[in-house]
Design goal:
Elements lengths: L3 E8 L6 H4 L10 H6 L9 H4 L5 E4 L11 H8 L4 E4 L4 H10 L2 E4 L11 E5 L4 E4 L5 E3 L5 H8 L3 H9 L1
Parallel strand pairs: 1-2, 2-3, 3-4
Antiparallel strand pairs: 1-5, 5-6, 6-7
Helix pairs in contact: 4-5, 6-7
């Protein structure tokens, strides 16, 4: 897995719950591409059209609160988002992200970030940089086992690969 993640910021607010990430009316499928087509649509109906592969969600407090369904991080990952950075996460949502192979970082940078800002995450150094503001935020370096889980595509794939 690369130690550097780069992408444009897609900025959201506080307490974005799993029903906003993927509205309950779309939970009749587990098809990742179909979930991605409806990701964040109650917050921004054009999210799936605007988001580009590699973009990074930057959020405030309590991202992923609400129901503990895995559909929410699956929809985010399938939409092309490479990472989510938030001041805080709902605990189960954070674990579900790692379990399905989506990187998450706890960092309070929303107030200084504008949509489209270029964000660079250095997982080895534990730094997140905003190219526009030139600010560098410190985060905990990502442990190797988490990188392996994410680069494997999630916990299930990681476990299968380790058995070989």
């Amino acid at each position: 897995m690369k130690n550097i993640i780069k992408g444009r910021a897609y900025v959201v607010g506080d307490s974005v719950d799993t029903d906003v990430i993927i509205p309950a009316r779309f939970l009749t499928t587990d098809n990742a591409n179909e979930l991605a087509a409806h990701c964040m649509e109650d917050l921004d109906k054009d999210f799936s059209k605007k988001v580009k592969t590699g973009d990074i969600i930057v959020a405030g407090d309590n991202f992923g609160c609400g129901s503990s369904r895995e559909h929410a991080p699956i929809a985010i990952k399938a939409s092309g988002i490479s990472a989510v950075i938030a001041k805080s996460f709902a605990r189960i949502f954070l674990r579900n992200c790692i379990n399905i192979g989506l990187m998450v970082f706890v960092c309070d940078m929303k107030k200084d970030t504008r949509p489209g800002d270029e964000i660079t995450v250095d997982m080895q150094k534990g730094e997140i940089a905003n190219a526009r503001t030139k600010k560098i935020y410190q985060v905990k370096p990502v442990p190797e086992f988490i990188k392996k889980i994410v680069s494997s595509g999630g916990l299930l794939n990681y476990a299968v690969q380790r058995r070989k």
